[in-house]
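so i finally got all the pieces together for this one. its two components total, 502 residues if u count the protein bits. some of the lines might not be protein, just check the labels. i wanna see the whole assembly predicted at once instead of chain by chain like last time, that was a mess tbh
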Amino acid sequence: MIFIKNCFGNYISDIFSTKEIWFYGGYQDVKQKYRRTRFGPFWNTIIVGIFLMGLGPVYSKIFGTDLEDFFPYLAVGFVIWIFFSTTLNENCTIFQDSSGIIKQTNVSIVCYPTRIVIKNFFNFLHIILILPLIFLLSGKNISFIMILSLPGFIMLIAFLIFTSYSLALLSSRFRDIPPLISACLQLLFFFTPIIWEESKISVSSPILLSILKVNPLFSLMEIIRSPILGNLPSINSYILAFSFTVLSFLVCSILHYNFSKRLSYWI
Amino acid sequence: MKKKVKINLKNVSVNIPIFDVSARSLRNTFVNFTQSQKDENKTIIINALKDINIQISSGDRLGVIGKNGSGKTTFLRVCSGAIKPDIGEVEISGRITSLIDIGFGLEEDATGYENIILKGLYLKRSPKLSKKLFSIIEEISDLGSFLNLPIRTYSSGMRMRLAYAIASAEDPQILIMDEWLSVGDKEWIAKMSEKIDSFVFSSAIFILASHNEELVNKLCNKIIYLDNGNLVGLK
């Protein structure tokens, strides 16, 4: 019982005690990156916008779907994907990159990966500005169900904060993990329903579908995207997404409890 | 407040593993794990500190003397809480101001003022508090309107002055220094020497590592000698 309290309590209290570092730091990171550019962080919006405008029409032809349905579906999925993959990719080397600071201070190390999540979250807030335009272009109606995507989104952020920390910690001990992660993330793009739709595969090969659902992003994506597009996600997706979030929390707080003290020896 | 400030080191050993490429790979760990045999030659371990016992309490000005590689900096890092020892216990209470590497945490592209806030975060100052300290930092750093420019435009001396000013804006409870300050030009040091002295001597605990015994004798009332990670003398 005491172990459980120490283990989970430690991590949570470290996250809250460093909130100013990760929040203000994340904000500064965004500001830093786009200093002296004309469009600033809106470059994210432009880049994703250009990509979607090109990809949408072509892929809807390839898959033989209506552009009106496919375009918003692709856009929402892709925007979430960018948030997910850049966060995890950048986090793999975060401890090596901040080793100078880590060896100087006794600030809890959980703030560094969280800072990256926040930074990418700010970028994400800029990127989603492309969505209204795409919804307008494809004549998609906006409904109140959209609000239901909020719990899913909170779960996604929590999942990213926990998983980022675990990955960052493991990556600083085992230097083979960062390239492995970026390889896996490339594959994950195709294993997650972003450019294809779940309904297509559920008819032809239900077994494959259940294997693909081992991917945490599968259910997280579903509970965020469906409400935005005006559909209700299935209760199963909520259960799955919630379980993955809890699991990621368990893993990261156990790692934190056992190995966070060793970090300064690894970097 | 000052009564509480203390650092206790109990049987502290620090063994720093130097991973070579093969020890760090995931495959090797896995192979070792499955074959249940430990390949101990792979990782070189440096015993940076061996079984150190010391109690530092309020009012102590501790000098740490030793050759290069004797464990001085590691000792300071343990005292500042940045390195947790693998054996033994460390108990630290009090706000720590570490000047081991004075320039850490500065962002090249941010302005002087932004850096005051950014670096302040790592010193556990809220952005609000940092803003209150602006006037003090302006005075100590003596940088004037340069504070509005990104610090990549600063000379290295100016950068150090800013870093020092940020660190010394609040009175320290525990002040940790690796060698004496080498900040700024003669004029600045002459102008600030009183401030520097009062900053150093306002701390409840002061730890200075140096190979300059004369300086340590002058500034400190307690001296430890480190050799090869062992505590060999206490004065």
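The first helix of chain B runs from residue 21 to 24.
Chain B has a mean pLDDT of 82.
anyway lmk what u think
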